[in-house]
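For the sake of transparency, this paper describes our internal protein records without simplification. Because each token names a local backbone shape, the row as a whole describes the fold. One such record is reproduced below, unchanged from the form in which we store it:
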Amino acid sequence: MMVDNVNYQFGRDYLITISSSSSRGTLTFAPPMQVIFSVSHTPGNKTGKAKITIYGTSKGTRWDIFNKYDTVEIKAGYQGNCGLIYRGQIFNRSTQREGVATTLTLYCFCNGKKMSSAFIAHTWGENTPAIEIIRGTAATFGLPMEIIGDFSDLPPAIQGKTLMAMTKDAMDALERIYDFKWWLKTDGVAIIRNGAEKPGKPKVIDMNHGMEGIPRIYMNYVEVDVRLDHVITPGDVIRVYSEHEQLGFSDMYHVNMQEYSQAFRNKSRLVVKSVDHIGNFWRDDWTTTITAYIRSNKVTQPWQ
């Protein structure tokens, strides 16, 4: 899509576009320029975040980014399979020296202006369903909304409810009451019921389908590294197959994790909790780390 030279690092590809929300004009960065980025999308952390370091920029370009531009978009992946992994506002900027090179680092978060300005002032009547309160509050961000999971079992607001607060604070309060997580993502606001998952066919991850290394098993979640993947998002269902695994918690001598280990040999079914993209164009990292919930509760103490 952006680069045709197959000699670039393992077919990696990216396009970083920097623009202004108040004026025309854009800056673009693409291979073979060296870039390093880390992008995190985690429900419950309020907003997706990105740290982007660009090498080889001119003094004039750095001045423009400091003074004229405030929005950034990253598309990354591989030639022929490159997609959006981040879009958001530039919050801070810094320059550093690395040997003879000058680097520019951007610290960004998704929909930052919406996060800092949205306000809710509304009253709902008696017996209003919980999901209507959640949806109405989130709507004040003014962004497309994605709701994942079933909220129908939540008790209604019997005496009604009044909210008058910054939307982010109101959503945090509702989150604690109604058992869900929310976050501002690249293309809107997402709300996911704890334990819920998106419908659709699970994505298979194994040695023939993008997996790098082996799964890391913790007490109630798993981490899996894959080739940089712009498609996977929180709430997706994945099936992971591996003949090997690493136990990554301190109580491995007292907790029976064999059910989890066996599950990976039978394509265990996991629900994605968070997604982190790590890129270093001319170095080793070009990876997506998936943190997923284990859909089994067969963990026992050795004396049970």
